[in-house]
Design goal:
8-stranded mixed β-barrel, globular, two-stranded antiparallel sheet, 11 helices, alpha/beta, about 240 residues, binds calcium ion, single chain, 11 strands, binds ligand C2E
């Protein structure tokens, strides 16, 4: 797992890390998830991997806590995994293995498009996850055609604005309008909002002006191996 920081762009506070899979291949080197996940996301392997991701991320978060870093940790969960009938039971069992980890520091991210497959089922799942004290966020928000009606039925903690919209806000006024709309939507529904794909400090400044304080992206930090994170945090300053 690699980890990418999420920060408060107003002051540079580090809020947490998103765990992102990497396959370190003996000959081919580092393979990004986009190159292997599509081949396994319809097999049960994706469930084993997802369990491993949650477990590893929790262990890592506890290690950082021992260094005084109470960061939240976000994990990405695939459609097939989240739709398993025993998903909640397994999650609870995993949680119980780490009693020192405050529940609210774990966050589950699922794609907006997956959430919309079956809005009522997703709604139940979100409520059950939140009952465990765990946060829930909708990833790639804006790509899945959520209607206001659906958003009302999906009581997620956070909307994650898709990076394809964020990337072009400096040049493209339609993307800027879209990002503005998502920020407004989040505020109207009293949800948190985070921008992904913050590639430069100009992006961060514009997002701040638009009222989005939370950000993640190459302009802040690239995803990095766990053993580089503390060092990065030590030296990170707002640009
Ligand atoms: P995602 O969840 O939307 O994660 C964000 C992706 O954007 C990551 O790609 C990250 O490296 C990249 N990124 C971050 N900041 C920037 C930026 O400023 N500019 C650009 N161009 N890209 C940025 P990555 O790590 O290749 O992951 C791709 C996707 O694979 C993820 O998208 C997620 O959907 C999936 N994925 C990653 N790890 C896991 C996992 O453990 N389980 C599951 N089921 N899916 C995962
Ligand atoms: Ca994600
Ligand atoms: Ca995303």
């Amino acid at each position: 797992l690699y980890y990418q920081p999420k920060i408060d762009m107003r002051n540079g506070d580090i809020l947490g890390m998103e765990a992102l899979l990497r396959w370190i291949h003996p000959e081919k080197g580092l393979i990004p998830p986009g190159d292997f996940l599509p081949h396994i996301e319809h097999s049960s392997l994706i469930i084993d991997i997802g369990e491993w991701v949650i477990e590893t991320a929790l262990q890592q978060a506890l290690q950082w806590q021992a260094h005084g870093k109470g960061w939240c940790i976000s994990v990405n969960i695939a459609a097939r995994h989240i739709q398993m009938p025993d998903f909640i039971e397994q999650l609870k069992a995993t949680q119980q293995r780490y009693p020192d980890m405050p529940a609210h520091l774990l966050e589950i991210e699922i794609l907006e498009s997956v959430a919309l497959n079956d809005v009522e089922q997703t709604r139940h799942l979100i409520l059950e996850v939140q009952q465990l004290g765990i946060d829930f966020s909708l990833d790639d928000f804006g790509t899945g055609y959520s209607s206001l009606k659906y958003l009302k039925r999906l009581p997620v903690n956070t909307l994650k604005i898709d990076q394809t919209f964020v990337r072009d806000i400096l040049e493209d006024k339609d993307d800027r309008a879209l990002v503005n709309a998502v920020i407004g939507l989040a505020s109207a529904f009293n949800r948190k909002v985070i921008a992904e794909g913050v590639e430069t400090w100009e992006h961060a400044e514009l997002l701040l002006q638009m009222g989005c304080h939370l950000g993640q992206g190459y302009g802040i930090a690239r995803p990095m191996p766990a053993d580089q994170v503390l060092d990065w945090a030590e030296h990170y300053r707002l640009s």
